[in-house]
């Protein structure tokens, strides 16, 4: 008895290629729509869907092309549309404009894609030659093949360009005018285009002890300019960097790229027109060809043209198109039309990253019992896989929008570090009068201690006045947001921080804290109980002593000091971050710490800050 019934095998033999080519088209649609959205949407589900579609797209197209070749050569199929389907599969293998690489490592695999290009083009040629007949579809395969090979070769070439670029040569529009116009978006875009090229060079020689790469004297000429355009420029720069690393921007926005795109588009249109002329031109074609294959061919061609039109729309609404118009001195009318028809010019108000901060309340997490959203069965399965704790952390995390005042806070803090010897030299090391050497702890321990101190001070009501000034309350909330954000990075994205901590160490730390707070029901009560922690738990005891020292200070001084410590922690983490980890983060919606990573080494370019001084001032962690 056969394991697979005969009727299932016969059905698959009839529908195998049909199903695969339609699946390949659907995967392309997913990549076109979601491939670029991961730049500004921080969503696990989008990342998973794009990852699956990216991996499956090449595999499905390759298998479909192989099965089509086998069927045509050995006459296992009476499908007369193989000469068109094979080039259209090459078109799918070329991938969309919105995503060429899922991760940085994919760019380094350009040679593998080149070999795949040679093999798949050879297979497509074989299909066309073995199924060539003197009828319409054989001749239509020629423009379809041209479009397919252009798209596939373009993708491989882009991967090679990105992987080999060391000096920012792939950045389009080198000769854009340096003139700063009055429009905020235009000014920020010009600055970002200059910065991204310089930052590409900087990354190749990443050295946290020697920052800075001046663009030229007088590029930014006043504090008003900095406050107005600085953060917009950094955000646009992040978006441009994403485009260069993960899309076809490096080739598309060149003269050669535009010509190839036009040829590919024209070929696709010509094939579609020829197909419809054949279908609606009369004749008895329905007696000789399968209606199902006719329908599938129509879907493939219409889908290919629709995706090309969608790609053109994305290109026209991109920051790179605006840079091209600025280069041609045609940007004014885009700005004016953008005010009247904002839906047609989304780049004027588009998000360049998610602008969200992850939040993780460590004490609140330790108070949770077994009432999580995981069932007993799923907990047992996750436990066997060794990821139960990580999943529970993920379920506990939340997100908040980045407070608008946090940007100016960072900029002011950088100015303070640069000029601290002139402003307040007494604040250098003696943050506490207590005999505590906080900075002798490892960086990850400092994060945990400071997080607990912030929670204890936040929930302490013994000296909080109901008449506190608004700016004190704002500082208090800002401190807590930064505290939860750093803890989120520490537990959920530790690769972005300059820490090396094993999962066992993290698990033991959380277990000890959980056991101490075993009978506590809420965070306020837990903060009160932490005042009784013994010296046996060194981190907790240090946090207790620091919190008691803080609580003896006036509220404004207390929260001012905590804010300085968290800003110091964030800036230190940004300076010491690893290049690849931050560039990988661009494809997951971006991260505030990544924004700071772009921001800090460019402060001297945009605001005259000496970053070498900043690095020395922040380098407080023990060796």
TrEMBL record:
Entry keyword annotation includes Magnesium: no
Pfam families associated with the record: DUF4220, DUF594
Bilayer-crossing regions: 15-34, 46-68, 80-102, 258-282, 294-316, 485-501
Domain DUF4220: from-to ranges: 51-364
Keywords: Cell projection, Cilium, Flagellum, Membrane, Transmembrane, Transmembrane helix
PANTHER family, sorted: OS01G0798800 PROTEIN-RELATED
Protein name: Intraflagellar transport protein
Organism: Actinidia chinensis var. chinensis
């Amino acid at each position: 008895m056969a394991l697979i019934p005969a009727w299932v095998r016969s059905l698959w033999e009839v529908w195998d290629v049909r199903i695969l080519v339609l699946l390949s088209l659907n995967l392309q649609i997913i990549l076109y729509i979601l491939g670029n959205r991961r730049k500004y949407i921080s969503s696990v589900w989008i990342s998973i869907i794009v990852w699956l579609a990216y991996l499956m797209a090449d595999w499905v197209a390759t298998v479909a092309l192989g099965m089509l070749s086998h069927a045509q050569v050995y006459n296992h199929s009476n499908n007369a549309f193989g000469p068109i389907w094979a080039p259209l599969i090459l078109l799918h293998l070329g991938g969309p404009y919105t995503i060429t690489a899922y991760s940085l490592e994919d760019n380094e695999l350009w040679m593998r894609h080149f070999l795949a290009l040679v093999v798949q083009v050879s297979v497509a040629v074989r299909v066309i030659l073995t199924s060539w007949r003197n009828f319409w579809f054989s001749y239509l395969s020629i423009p379809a093949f041209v479009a397919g090979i252009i798209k596939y070769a373009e993708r491989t070439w882009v991967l090679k360009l990105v992987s080999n670029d060391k000096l920012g040569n792939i950045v389009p529009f080198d000769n854009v005018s340096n003139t700063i116009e009055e429009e905020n978006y235009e000014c920020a875009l010009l600055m970002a285009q200059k910065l991204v090229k310089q930052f590409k060079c900087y990354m190749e020689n990443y050295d946290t002890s020697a920052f800075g790469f001046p663009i030229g004297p007088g590029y930014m000429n006043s504090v008003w300019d900095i406050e107005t355009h600085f953060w917009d420029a950094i955000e646009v720069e992040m978006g441009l960097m994403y485009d260069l690393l993960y899309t076809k921007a490096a080739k598309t926005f060149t003269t050669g790229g535009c010509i190839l795109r036009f040829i590919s588009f024209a070929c696709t249109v010509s094939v579609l027109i020829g197909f419809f002329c054949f279908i609606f031109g009369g004749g008895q074609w329905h007696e000789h060809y399968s209606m199902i294959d006719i329908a599938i061919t129509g879907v493939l061609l219409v889908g290919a043209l629709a995706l090309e039109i969608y790609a053109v729309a994305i290109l026209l609404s991109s920051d790179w198109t605006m840079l091209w118009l600025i280069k041609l001195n045609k940007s004014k009318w885009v700005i004016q039309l953008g005010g009247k028809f904002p839906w047609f010019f989304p780049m004027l108000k588009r998000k360049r990253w998610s602008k969200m901060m992850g939040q993780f309340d460590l004490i609140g997490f330790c108070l949770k019992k077994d009432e999580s959203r995981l069932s007993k069965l799923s907990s047992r399965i996750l436990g066997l896989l060794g990821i139960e704790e990580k999943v529970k952390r993920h379920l506990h995390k939340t997100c908040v929008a980045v407070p608008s005042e946090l940007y100016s806070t960072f900029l002011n803090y950088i100015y303070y570090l640069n000029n601290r010897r002139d402003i307040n030299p007494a604040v250098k090391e003696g943050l506490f009068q207590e005999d505590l050497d906080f900075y002798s702890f490892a960086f990850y321990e400092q994060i945990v201690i400071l997080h607990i101190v912030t929670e204890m001070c936040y929930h302490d009501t013994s000296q909080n006045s109901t008449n506190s000034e608004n700016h004190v309350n704002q500082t208090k909330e800002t401190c807590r947001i930064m505290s939860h954000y750093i803890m989120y990075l520490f537990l959920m994205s530790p690769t972005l921080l300059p820490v090396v901590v094993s999962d066992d160490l993290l698990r033991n730390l959380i277990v000890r804290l959980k056991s101490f707070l075993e009978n506590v029901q809420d965070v306020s009560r837990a903060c009160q109980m932490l005042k009784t922690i013994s010296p046996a738990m060194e981190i907790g005891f240090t946090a207790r002593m620091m919190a008691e020292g803080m609580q003896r200070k006036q509220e404004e001084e207390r929260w001012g000091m905590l804010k300085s410590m968290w800003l110091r922690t964030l800036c230190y983490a940004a300076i010491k971050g690893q290049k690849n980890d931050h560039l990988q983060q661009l494809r997951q919606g971006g991260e505030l710490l990544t924004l700071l990573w772009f921001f800090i080494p460019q402060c001297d370019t945009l605001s005259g800050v000496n970053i070498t001084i900043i690095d020395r001032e922040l380098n407080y962690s023990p060796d």
